Amino acid sequence: MKLPPLTAFHYFNIAAETESFVRAAERLHVTHGAVSRQVRQLEEHLGIELFERRNRAIFLTPAGRALHGTTQAIFEQLEGAVQRLQQQDRDNVLVLSCEPTIAMRWLIPRLPRFHAAHPDLQLHLVAAGGPVDFARSGVDLALRRDDFHWPPALHSLKICDEWIGPVNRDGATTLDGQRLLHSSTRPSAWRSWLHLSNRQARHSQRSDYEHFYLSLQAASAGLGLAIASALMVRDEIDSGQLQAPFGFLRDGSAYHLLSPQPLDEGGKRQRFAEWVIGESQACLAHLSLLQNDEAALPSPPQVR
Fold first, then answer.
1. Ordered domains of the chain (ranges, CATH)
2. Exposed (0-12), middle (13-18) or buried (19+): which is 32, by Cβ within 10 Å?
3. The overall pTM is greater than 0.90
4. Of 88, 105, 137, 157, which has fewest CB within 10 angstroms of its CB?
5. Could you give the 3-state DSSP secondary structure of residue 114?
6. Cα diameter, the chain
């Protein structure tokens, strides 16, 4: 026996739920006539009346009620299966918003290890800094330095402290007379480090760059001394492309993962959080930077 088209059963099911061709048409975003035709064709195919039509009202016949019990269960099962498949697909995708400099200079070179450790997760990387609108952007996690106040409703997890220090190509150990490279995105970086290190830079020259990563690139090119994040220059220090003649100091800031959802309930967010904490700790340990950070527990939403 050849079954009628699925569309006919779908239109019948909605009409049976609403007990109205007009309301069914509104839910299906079609015309009243389209619903009526589909139901009539189904009745003709089955050779059974499914609705009793009285003036402008419709009522299920005993056969219609019996069929509706079946179609309702089938479409509920179908809808549930589709939702599970879509949810499974979303569960395998992690959308991460990350500050551009740390994304380019630290995170991306380490992503092959993440994919090797979590081959079932697809990481979608969005380069952005500052506040993030999770609801509108579709982002699952944001990796940020705590140089701004985030909404109290967000969950946060400290990844590691920020360590900063001057870097250059030739390893010169004097600040006097040097060209100091500044950036608009971290305008107080030099002032903070000079204060923390109790040093002065006499008779220095100045060059300004719009972005932090541009000042680091300029330092790699031998154009002067730039204040760097230890994380972001670890690879260049290893290769000898950059030197850190004064070492690194904590500047009082830190990197955090932000999320609208809890970070300690298993799943993709916790898996990435554990991985990125391990990578950052290994990086700082490699640079012989003491880590006094205790294992940070995810913090609930709170006022910062």
1. 6-86 (1.10.10.10), 93-158+253-287 (3.40.190.10), 162-252 (3.40.190.10)
2. middle
3. no
4. 88
5. helix
6. 98
